[in-house]
Each structure stands twice: as structure tokens, then as C-alpha cells.
Amino acid sequence: MLARLALQQILDRLSLYPAVALVGPRQSGKTTLAQSLKGTYYDLEQEPERLRLDLEWDTVVSDRRLVVLDEAQAWPEVFSRLRGAIDQDRKRYGRFLILGSVSPSLMVHVSESLAGRLALIELTPLLWTELKAQASLERLWLCGGFPDGGVLDVKYYPQWQSDYLTLLVQRDLPNWGLPAGPQTTDRLLRMLAAVHGQIWNAAQIGKSLGLTYHTVNSYLDYFVGAFLIRRLQPYQANIRKRLVKRPKLYWRDSGLVHALLNVTDRRSLLSQPWVGASWEGFVIEQTIGLLKSLGVPHEAYHFRTSDQHEVDLVLDFGSELWAIEVKLTASPGPGDMGRLDRVAEMIGASKRFLISQTSKPTGGENRASYNMESFVERLLDRFSPLAM
Hints:
Largest sheet: 6 strands, mixed
Number of strands: 14
Number of domains: 2
Distance between the termini: 27 Å
């Protein structure tokens, strides 16, 4: 099994809380990671497993072993039971690990029954830091990070992604409450692939589908909750310029968006007019995913003014603000860094980094030009538990 960065965070939270919820997309590795902890495992999507847990409940709550409840939102009754068991012994930590693939449904039950009793951790598909001994960065960009999606064996891409999305459209999203029919959902997902990396315009998408923008936004909520889509919110700075106040939309896994857009290999990817947006989204997701896996508190934004001053990623760590620009080039020029400097000064960012495919990273502590590999090392040096 590949070592996952989130494992240490899970162990740390289990030592401090009675329960931990591990959320993330289907097939991202939650079950494999949870089972590596050698607890008592129940898959609550399966009726026989729910019956087994029901009959064994008294034994389970008195046992000293970790109890793993997979897809817990599929059996809402379990949350009130968990609350009762936890409240009987609030100082007993590390009892339950709850796994979920659909954030809104799970969080409704968590907020109603387990508020204050549980820590929340998100597991992304595989990150570059978890994979670099097994696959190239280029393959991770092309195929995405799902363990079975081709990043470890490219022959599975893009058929795995097609099957994955078909199952979500026909079974999972309707089961999770999405009111759209499979045909409408499929069309909407393909439209969202076409606007990857763009400012979100629900009215434009709705017009193409014959739907109101309110309906399109409500459907998008399901895709965000299923960890398919990231809405990167705008950074609100107090400056004398009109700001773009709509979010940017990104597919969270590059392999899924590439499969939807019929990209089959690296050569095909590099020939696409939207390849820059693909690289931008990949870098942003790797960055945010790494920070989440390390348990680093932060908020992520984009920034754009009406006169086209922009930066792709703004990271707010509370004590400092980072401005990050992403360029698909092997030869970033002084003009690229100059534009980043101007926007960073505009929003008061203390650090500014240009991420490209350069072979010669340069710069210092607060201002640098990196490639993806060297930027990841910078993040690990700054934020990994051993460095803090």
C-alpha cells in the first residue's frame, strides 16, 4: 500500500477526539487507508453489514478496538447511536473512524448528532508526494490521482474514468438526492469540463440546458459535495479597483476532466487550446490537497480585477498571505514575475511564487520561480510536522 500523508493526521486526531470523519471522493483510497489501521470494519452501504452492526452494537461500543464505519451516511440511524455511545464516555478517544463519499449528506448528520465530538479530515486522490517513486508527474497530470485510474498503470486510462463517471451519473448522484436525470447530468458534466478554469457563469450554462441559473447552481452543489468540482472563491481585497466577485470552477481530478474532453495521451493533451487551464487546475489541486493532507489551516481563493489584474491562487494562512501564479511554460520570463509582483503588492501578499515547468528554480524565501517538484518540496519543508 502506498503511504498516505493523511495517515499521521488521522492518528493525531484519533488521539484527541472520540471520532474522526474521513471524507473524500469514491475510490480515492479511504477504505484501504482505514483498513490499514486494523480496526473492526463495517460497510454501511450493505444491508447485511448494517444488520451485523445492529446485532453487535453493545459489543462494539464496549470494545477497545477502533471501529471503522464506511459510507456512514447510507445508514443515518448510526449517528444518534454514535452520539449516545460517545456521551457515555467523553474522555475515551480514538473510538470511531467514519468514512464518507458525499460531503453534504454526511455533514448534515455530523452537525446534528456529533458536533464537538468529531474531527474532520479530507482525503484527496493520490498526490505527487505520495506517488513520485511510482509514477511521473506528467502521468499524474494526464491520468489524475485515483489509484485505479491509470496513474500506476496507464492502460486503465481513460476507460476507468469513463466508467467511474457513468456510475456516479446513473447511481450515486441520484441516490444522494440529485434531482436531474442521467442524460441532463451527463450533459452538464461535459459542459463543466469545457469551462474548467474559468469564471463560473451559471446563467450561460443554464441557457444551454434550458434550466434556470438557480437550478444549475443547485446541481453544482452536488458535484462540489461529491468532490468532483472545486469552486475557488474570489479574494476580497480593499483596493481602488472593481473586483470580479464570482468563483472560478475547477475539476478536482485532472484525469476526469481529460477523459470527458477525449484526451487519451500526453501529445493529445498538449495540443489542446485549454491545456494551460488544465495545468493551472492541476497545480492548484496538488497544492490545496497537500496542505489539507498535512492538516495546515488555510483558505484558498483566486483574485481578479475588472481590468484583468489577476493571480491564480491566493493562500491565506492567517499570519501571512501567499500569491501564486501558474504558467505552462518551461521558460518563464521577467514579465511573468513582474505581473505577479504587481498583483501581490495590490493585495498585500507577503510571499509570491511563480509555478511553471522550468528546469531551473530560482529565488529566495519570499519571492521565487519554481517547478511543481521544487514547490512541493518547499511546502513540505515549511509545513510538514517534522518541520514545524
